[in-house]
From TrEMBL:
<comment type="similarity">
    <text>Belongs to the glycerophosphoryl diester phosphodiesterase family.</text>
</comment>
<feature type="domain" description="GP-PDE">
    <location>
        <begin position="21"/>
        <end position="323"/>
    </location>
</feature>
<feature type="region of interest" description="Disordered">
    <location>
        <begin position="326"/>
        <end position="366"/>
    </location>
</feature>
<dbReference type="InterPro" id="IPR017946">
    <property type="entry name" value="PLC-like_Pdiesterase_TIM-brl"/>
</dbReference>
<feature type="signal peptide">
    <location>
        <begin position="1"/>
        <end position="20"/>
    </location>
</feature>
<keyword id="KW-0812">Transmembrane</keyword>
<protein>
    <recommendedName>
        <fullName>glycerophosphodiester phosphodiesterase</fullName>
        <ecNumber>3.1.4.46</ecNumber>
    </recommendedName>
</protein>
<keyword id="KW-0319">Glycerol metabolism</keyword>
<feature type="compositionally biased region" description="Acidic residues">
    <location>
        <begin position="332"/>
        <end position="351"/>
    </location>
</feature>
<keyword id="KW-0378">Hydrolase</keyword>
<keyword id="KW-0732">Signal</keyword>
<feature type="transmembrane region" description="Helical">
    <location>
        <begin position="371"/>
        <end position="393"/>
    </location>
</feature>
<keyword id="KW-1133">Transmembrane helix</keyword>
<keyword id="KW-0472">Membrane</keyword>
<dbReference type="Pfam" id="PF03009">
    <property type="entry name" value="GDPD"/>
</dbReference>
<dbReference type="InterPro" id="IPR030395">
    <property type="entry name" value="GP_PDE_dom"/>
</dbReference>
Length: 407
């Protein structure tokens, strides 16, 4: 009787605490390699919004003619057909002390980049949705977020969480990101500039949702801090031991708190380093977010228990399934469907994601929800891409939800 009571109580507590963990749709939220969806595409963002992510996560870089666009980094090679369309433009450059070969955004005008079509990174040009979607300019992505906020009845709630990528590098090329980033936010209605150049957050219902600025670097976050009211996230590198060593003392955590509201810590550090850093950050008054979860429910328990308030996800549909289970009271709380207490997060938690394993149980089968969401997505994407790819996408979306997950 007592153990049943404890079990029920822990389910209630877990349900309450599960409420506090929200999902950041990494590159839209379907960038793991079990999805066919090209990262940062309209399809990725639409699917993320319909899967219920709290934030859509674009990465922001510059073109040669200083247009801000959305891509994971400055190399167009892995995520588009640039090698076929502009084969002669391949270049090798020293970036951060390393020779890097690719097709770099800073060497292309926006007019050139807008002729390219996106590819899903994991499928080498053979992805089912490759060749359909163009790149977004940052301003267009923000406008699309507004469309999605309306379509999903989440106006005022659907957030964006844009990362300023390689800010020092782009500034050194005379293509600084910060000013244009804030201008794009203002143009999309997230904030309004006063005469002194300070962008005050919009409060009259004009903003589609929260706007959180994100970077690995302090300089752009300090710029955002002195020019806006937006919340700021400082990302800490996953590289070991450099990453964990960056937040090992109270003084280090307090230094981040001077220019950031939130610190995003790599789950790949493992439970011990992640826990220590989380407690230090929270003691310094910082909120903690985690990056990045894939199709594995194991890290969620740790995140919820530590009071982490958001996690980047490479598969938002999977993440939503895990959180729904944590929120729903179970009739048999201690059966195999619950994530194991001793499930430690994987050490090799690479951003591109693991395929589900036998151990990846613990996710409910929302057949009804999945089909309903699939139908709504079909409607939205039908407008965007025509019927063929939508069938593929819908099938894939549903299979991600309750076929792949069953492993
Ligand atoms: C980059 O490649 C060039 C040519 O192969 C070489 O001379 C140079 O040392 C390399 N630089 C770095 C930083 O690896
Ligand atoms: C934890 O951090 C230390 C450095 O502070 C590092 O040596 C160790 O490998 C890290 N553990 C994991 C699992 O990454
Ligand atoms: C996806 O990632 C897993 C683990 O990293 C790998 O084993 C698998 O081959 C990948 N699949 C594709 C289609 O790239």
């Amino acid at each position: 009787m007592q153990s049943l009571l404890v079990a029920l109580l822990s389910v209630v507590l877990l349900a309450q605490r599960g409420e506090g963990l929200s999902i950041v749709g990494h590159r839209g939220g379907f960038s793991d390699n079990t999805s066919y969806v090209p990262e940062h595409s309209a399809a990725a963002y639409a699917l993320g919004a319909y899967a219920g992510v709290a934030y859509l996560e674009p990465d922001v870089v510059s073109t040669k003619d200083h247009e801000l666009m959305v891509m994971h980094g400055n190399d167009l090679g892995g995520t588009s057909d640039v090698a076929e369309k502009f084969p002669e433009r391949v270049a090798t450059k020293v970036i951060s002390g390393k020779n890097v070969t690719g097709y770099f955004t800073e060497d292309f005008t926006w007019a050139e980049i807008s002729t390219l079509r996106l590819r899903a990174r994991a499928y080498g040009g053979q992805g089912a949705l490759d060749g359909i979607y163009p790149f977004f300019r940052f301003s267009e992505m923000l406008e699309f977020t507004k469309t999605l906020a309306r379509e999903t009845n989440r106006w005022g709630e659907l957030g964006v969480y844009p990362e300023l990528k390689m800010p020092t590098y782009f500034r050194s090329l005379g293509l600084p990101l910060e000013e244009k980033y804030l201008q794009a936010a203002a143009d999309a209605g997230y904030c309004t500039f006063d005469e002194a150049g300070f962008c005050a957050s919009t409060t009259n219902g004009e903003a589609p949702g929260p706007f959180i600025a994100q970077s690995f670097y302090s300089a752009p976050l300090k710029y955002i801090q002195s020019h806006s009211e937006f919340q700021r996230v400082v990302l800490i590198t996953s590289v070991v031991p450099r990453g964990p060593d960056k937040i090992k003392t109270a003084a280090q955590a307090e230094a981040y708190a001077k220019y950031a509201d939130i610190v995003a810590l790599p789950i790949s550090w493992g439970a011990e380093n992640f826990t220590r850093a989380t407690l230090l950050a929270q003691a310094a008054g910082l909120e903690v977010h985690g990056w990045t979860t894939d199709v594995d429910p194991a890290p969620y328990r740790m995140l919820v228990d530590l009071g982490v308030t958001a996690t980047f996800s490479n598969n938002a549909n999977f993440a939503d399934g895990v959180l729904q289970q944590m929120r729903q009271p179970q009739s048999e709380p201690d059966d195999d469907d619950a994530p194991d207490d001793d499930d430690a997060p994987d050490d090799d938690d690479a951003p591109c994601g693991d395929v589900p394993t036998e151990g990846s149980t613990g996710v409910p089968h929302h057949h009804g929800t999945g089909i309903a969401i699939g139908m709504v997505i079909g409607g939205v994407l039908g407008v965007l891409v025509g019927a063929g790819p939508v069938q593929v996408l819908r099938a894939r979306y549903n299979s991600n939800r309750y076929h792949d997950i069953e492993g």
